[in-house]
Write a structure and sequence with these properties.
By secondary structure, this protein is α/β, with parallel strands linked by helices. Helices cover 28% and strands 23% of the residues. It folds into 3 domains: 257 residues, Rossmann fold (3-Layer(aba) Sandwich); 165 residues, Ribosomal Protein L25, Chain P (Beta Barrel), CATH 2.40.240.10; 115 residues, Ribosomal Protein L25, Chain P, CATH 2.40.240. Bound molecules: adenosine-5'-triphosphate (ATP) and magnesium ion (MG).
Amino acid sequence: MSEKENKTSGNFIKAIIDEDLKSGKFDRVHTRFPPEPNGYLHIGHAKSICLNFGLAEEYNGKCNLRFDDTNPLKEAQEYIDAIIEDVRWLGFDWEDRLFFASDYFEKMYEYAVRLIKTGKAYVDDLSAEQIKEYRGTLTKPGTESPFRNRSVEENLDLFERMRKGEFADGEKVLRAKIDMKSGNLNMRDPVMYRIIHASHPRTGDKWCIYPMYDWAHGLEDSIEGITHSICTLEFEDHRPLYDWFLDQLGIFHPRQIEFARLNLNYTVLSKRKLLKLVEEGHVSGWDDPRMPTIAGLRRRGYTPEAIRDFSDRIGVAKSNSVVDIALLDHCLREDLNKRALRRMVVLRPLKVVIENYPEDREEELEAENNPEDPSMGSRKLPFSKVIYVERDDFREEAPRKWFRLAPGKEVRLKHAYYITCREAVKNEQGEIVELRCTYDPASKGGWTKDGRKVKGTLHWVSAAHAVPVEVRLYDHLFLKENPEEVEEGQDFTANINPDSLIVLNNALAEPDLKNAKPGDRFQFLRQGYFCADLKDHSSEHPVFNRTVTLRDSWAKIEKKLQS
Ligand code: ATP
Ligand code: MG
């Protein structure tokens, strides 16, 4: 059995759906992805998107995109637009099923009136702090509000006046009348509506009472006829409340299934914390390539295919765990290896003069675009007397097993010739400014006639033809695997990696990279996978982001696991 089949059969969500279809509880599968537009989506949301849209696809069902836009204080059109773009970019289609919780505000209001009429909801005058105090704790039962036994008529009147705007924020709330002594704190008369005099991105000033998440969410699913409402584990304890609301109202009742949220090491996945990173300027924005947001990952050069593959491989679980970010990078390398054009870029250039190469000569060498895929063709590489190599590829004193350049050492230039280093030229400060080398004219294409081998193969660019480019090297945004591990009085921002972004302004690229368009992806030989920045790249000022290095730590982990 392949790894994938194994995952599928072990997917407990599918087992529940199969059972529901078999028993006749449902005769169709309808899921939804319900983001609150209070921030950008992150890789954790991607898991939920892949899961919900993936299940709908597999069962020939439907999946809605629904905005849970119930809190105007935190939500914005910018977030709505970004979320739509991200879900589409991941490759999913909600057809004509783009919905907004705010479209159901009238319906929800009617439902609330119904609960008031049956004595199941009441208007409370306690303040937020008092409500918290009266609520009790896990070990202490709650206390009933003195306003709990208002008459139906009074409640109906007050609730209507709440809607009309007769009261200030916080002056009154509508609460469900359930059980202040319940062992489940969610059942202790939860708040259903609060007063917020704020303009909503979609309903404007039409409303000044807004439904709480716990009241609204189950109704949204019910109204849309969602069969399987999939959410993260922290909502398990809220399920009895959702059941209670739906049963009191006697309306369509979806099945809720909880799964473990995605956690990644070296990463924070909470919109609140990501917002803090943006607002405090630790990153350049929600789409900073170091952010775990979909927009950040896209700008960094991640592919939707790699993210979907990652999502598949981690599967779904019933208990929380932390996934190694190396697995995400592994999926990415597998994908990019197949599709990325190979190019040569020298990040920190060191000049090389090839003494025995004719001054006025220029050649065009043939170089394949991707050794993994001959159909991707080849390009022409100019070669001339003066070239640049990577500064790190030269050592004046070669350590043992140094297979790159050093005085007297021979190396192969990729797609070109064998060269031997004769001398390192220094400036007055004693810094090496140039290497003097000779080449073997018989080694064209990078192969020798006599069969002699060298171990080192270097990338290079021709000085006369090179294109100056800016290269941005990224590393984990956090130094610690668990960014929350801090000293007292600190928060997770104390663990930000000061070297998470290194900008190289003097890199030199082979001429073909002049043609790169924003978003184009490449493998820079020996350096990693890069993509032309979606925002800052132009042909006048090329900017490349390092998506991921070539070294695959996950492959190593896997090998170890197998041996
Ligand atoms: P955050 O905790 O990052 O603020 P959230 O849960 O408040 O996220 P929502 O917009 O409410 O954000 O989430 C939309 C959907 O995405 C929900 O169904 C939620 O369960 C799911 N989701 C959020 N974070 C994760 C995660 N880390 N792993 C899997 N699913 C997630
Ligand atoms: Mg949420």
